[in-house]
Amino acid sequence: MSMVADAPLKNAVPTDQELIDFVVSEARLIDQQRFDEWLDMYADDAFYWMPLEWNQTDPRLTCSLMYEDKLLLSIRVERLKGARTFSQKPKSRCHHVLQTPQVDSRDAATNNYVTWTPMHYLETRLDEQTLYAAWATHHLGVEHGRLKIKLKRVDLINCDAAFGNIQLFM
Amino acid sequence: MIRYAGNAAALRALVRDQEVHRDVYVSEEVFQLEMEHMFPNSWVYVGHDSQVPNPGDYFGTTIGTQPVLLVRHTDGKVHVLHNRCPHKGTRITSETCGNTGKFFRCPYHAWSFKTDGSLLAIPLKKGYENTGFEQSHAAPGMAPVRHVRNYRGFVFAKINDGGLDFEEFFGESLSSFDNMIDRSPVGQLKVAGGVLRYMHNCNWKMLVENQTDTCHPMVAHESSAGTVVEVWKKAPPGTKKPMAVEIIAPFMSPYEFFENMGIRIWDNGHGHTGVHHSIHSDYSAVPGYFEKMKAAYGEARAKAILDENRHNTVYFPNIMIKGPIQLLRHFKPIAANKTLVESWTFQLVDAPDMLLERTLMYNRLINAPTSIVGHDDLEMYERAQEGLHSNGNEWVNLQRLYSPDEAGQTNVAVNGTSEWPMRHQFRAWTKFMTMGM
Ligand code: FES
Ligand SMILES: [Fe+2]
Prior knowledge:
The complex is a heterodimer of chains A (170) and B (437). With 170 residues, chain A is of the alpha+beta class. Chain A has helices spanning 16-31, 35-40, 70-80, and strands at residues 42-51, 64-69, 93-98, 102-107, 112-125, 128-143, 146-156. In chain A, strands 1, 2, 3, 4, 5, 6 and 7 form a 7-stranded mixed sheet that branches. In chain A, strand 4 (102-107) and strand 5 (112-125) form a beta hairpin. Chain A starts with 15 loop residues before the first helix and ends in a 14-residue tail after the last strand. In chain A, 33% of the residues are buried. With 437 residues, chain B is of the alpha+beta class. Chain B has helices at residues 8-12, 23-26, 28-38, 166-170, 174-182, 204-210, 217-220, 222-233, 243-248, 255-261, 289-297, 299-307, 353-366, 372-387, 420-434; strands at 19-21, 44-48, 57-63, 66-72, 78-82, 97-99, 103-105, 112-114, 119-121, 147-151, 154-158, 189-191, 196-200, 263-265, 271-273, 313-315, 319-322, 327-335, 338-348, 395-397, 412-414. In chain B, strands 12, 13, 14, 15, 16, 17, 18, 19 and 21 form a 9-stranded antiparallel sheet that branches. In chain B, strand 14 (263-265) and strand 15 (271-273) form a beta hairpin. In chain B, helix 11 crosses helix 12. The longest helix of chain B is centred in the last third of the chain and has 16 residues, at 372-387. Chain B starts with 7 loop residues before the first helix and ends with a helix. The mean pLDDT of chain B is 97. The A-B interface holds A 50, 52-53, 60-67, 69, 71-72, 74-76, 78-79, 82, 84-88, 160-167 and B 192-201, 220, 222-224, 226-228, 230-231, 242, 244-245, 340, 345, 353, 356-357, 360, 363-365, 368-370, 372, 374-376, 378-380. FE2/S2 (inorganic) cluster (FES) binds next to loops of chain B.
């Protein structure tokens, strides 16, 4: 199945529609559990950030739910395949409902494009089904003619609530 | 079916030398008795006084399931009050923490209270004239928790008048707090970085026991720590080991590592793993830190403080601290099968920021609801909480390295994979559960 994720851009500068399609296809790869392809959407020095605080600005000296570089993300993806990953026996499944991503800023000179995507994310395992509401902010850039995620920030509306296990990616 | 209330013998029979009955985890009646007896008879952690630095600052928490407030009074002293209006029971504060100014004002009928809880004013006070109000339960104001102790910033409270005094309750175990605090060049900690909250569908004691369970990491955490080790092996030679790998990889240490690291047993259910070394022993040095410690304490003392590598210190009933990385976990009971875990982190005052950065990284990699290490553990607790309903066997086995003469021994260091600490916690459980019954 062809995906915008691995498609080269038509021009050096991405169009708004290309940015939007890219963000939408990221959610689809997660929902379809195509995690290796998903990981390829991230730049080598990318971070995935889920703040713990409302309007959090500092990921270093304020705790986060997640603040992970590509090494940690790849460990998560490997772990999901593990024969002894008991919290994933049986496996979780997830489902994204996105609003159309909005392009908040685009700067070809610094190769920085930012989109904002309100979304509902549903995770299920066994008989449990949990709904989360969040805003995803993507900081994207072009590398070798393809879009890559430099930073994905997921702000949960109830970021400071007491959650049970959140096992996959939002 | 009531079987345990007022029945000390039945409660005692739940705990045997080498096994405990499943009702200590699954019975709602036993849980209610824990809230009525065991928690009120114990010195329970309330909060750190850096959470309420200024007069009027308050912080809401629980002792067992009872809501209380930690509050800084105008005279600078920290008080613990039952978080309940003496009029009709309304919870006084709307937020978990904040500043109330010079007094608390109940949002329902505007009775107001000084920050030590005493009644300040009632609107239309005349209506209480000649009603004998002075003799009512309401007249004194918000009920204080009478027994409060601030130990170097860590505030504990005991609801019941009976039981042990603070020193008797904690004894030598306070050395773990001392070591954590002494790691600051000025001997001071500050709550920092935010609190992680994680809901567990299991009994609170499963979490407490797990703090000294050293036979599970290499099994349960093969999925997380094992994957870290495997992925890290593929890094090009000479790559600098990232902080995250330093933190997670030691969970995969072999049995021998945990056997040799040792466990210390103190009185009243307290104890710690990591007598000789621990999973925190091999962290990289933080630039500039030792120099500051040396200047503050002298080289020998600074070395002694930092060479202490206690892993988990359990303070019975429901907290654990990690001195080497300044972290405190609070296991808050909600129901027999429900526990809220709060993970608090501390900044060493006057130490480099990188120490706090590492503490926070540890917290989110191990204790967050989004943590893969945390997933491994919670999966096991929840499976146990379900499995215990099987009638095929009503007993939980805690027999590993049992010795018949262990009861009554204190301040001993034993094999690091012993289940002695768990047996010891249950001896304390019986003691505080039935005290005064
Ligand atoms: S309930 Fe608090 S003033 Fe009435
Ligand atoms: Fe564990």
